[in-house]
């Protein structure tokens, strides 16, 4: 496996969302460095904010009243530099694939121009009552497609 190289924030698509985050005391080990599990919590919070701020969809409504899950079925990360307690970070999501009942994203986390972490997620849409896959809801599919087109981020 080839390790990816960090990408400066300025090289990400100009149209991509920039979701602010902050590394808190509870995210850190005794050395004050954000530990790997906390990064996944921070990433999920950024995705929830991305739904609301960029896709204009209520993440909680989709999961609550609409009973549609968008959980990770695959998650991986590459760490390039430590994040420390008090750091302000910016998460930049890119939609890389939209399928029938799943979609893939890459989520970059930067402090300034320095990429700290890069996540790759596959999210499956499921019926939360039956725990079975279901097609991506049309409003979510359309929002993901609009965003991916603006960012030119879909991979062939």
Query: What do we call the CATH homologous superfamily?
Result: Hotdog Thioesterase
Tell me how many strands there are.
8
The protein's oligomeric status is: single chain
Number of helices: 3
Order of helices and strands: EHHEEEEEEEH
Overall mean pLDDT: 96
For this structure, the CATH topology is Thiol Ester Dehydrase, Chain A
Q: Describe the largest sheet.
A: 5 strands, antiparallel
Organism: Sediminicoccus rosea
Protein name: Acyl-CoA thioesterase
InterPro entries: HotDog_dom_sf
Pfam family, one: 4HBT_2
Keywords for this entry:
8 strands, 156 residues, three-stranded antiparallel β-sheet, 32% strand, five-stranded antiparallel β-sheet, 3 helices, alpha+beta, Thiol Ester Dehydrase, Chain A
What does it look like?
The chain is of the alpha+beta class. It has one domain (18-151): Hotdog Thioesterase (Thiol Ester Dehydrase, Chain A). Helices cover 24% and strands 32% of the residues. The protein has helices spanning 36-53, 59-63, 138-151, and strands at residues 19-22, 68-69, 72-79, 88-98, 102-111, 114-124, 126-127, 132-133. It has a 5-stranded antiparallel β-sheet. 27% of the residues are buried. This is Acyl-CoA thioesterase.
């Amino acid at each position: 496996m080839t390790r990816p190289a960090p990408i400066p924030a300025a090289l990400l698509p100009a149209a991509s969302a920039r979701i602010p985050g902050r590394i808190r005391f509870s995210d850190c080990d005794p050395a004050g460095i954000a530990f790997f599990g906390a990064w996944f919590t921070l990433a999920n919070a950024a995705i929830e904010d991305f739904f609301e701020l960029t896709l204009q969809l209520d993440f909680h409504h989709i999961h609550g009243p609409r009973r549609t899950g968008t959980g990770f079925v695959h998650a991986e990360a590459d760490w390039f530099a430590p994040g420390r307690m008090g750091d302000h970070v910016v998460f930049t999501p890119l939609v890389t694939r939209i399928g029938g009942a799943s979609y893939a994203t890459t989520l970059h986390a930067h402090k300034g121009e320095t990429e700290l972490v890069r996540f790759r997620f596959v999210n499956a849409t499921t019926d939360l009552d039956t725990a079975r896959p279901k097609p991506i809801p049309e409003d979510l599919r359309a929002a993901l497609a609009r965003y991916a087109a603006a960012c030119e981020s879909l991979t062939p």
